[in-house]
Amino acid sequence: xxxxxxxxxxxxxxxxxxxxxxxxxxxxxxxxxxxxxxxxxxxxxxxxxxxxxxxxxxxxxxxxxxxxxxxxxxxxxxxx
Length: 80
Hints:
Layout: H1 3-18, E1 24-25, E2 41-43, H2 48-54, E3 61-62
Antiparallel strand pairs: 1-2, 2-3
């Protein structure tokens, strides 16, 4: 590989680590044991079909409690 390509890949990788994705805004501290899940702002999907499925539209972000469904399953992963 050329040095320019290696440098470009390294810069792109580092930018991905530094620049936040903007998909989720959440509290910085975890909820208390047996506590309530804090509000999490999610980005509205671009697909109109997905917006209709979730029952949301006309906004840039939404919270889980705005989803028009009887049950919403939240799966949380920890990378640590």
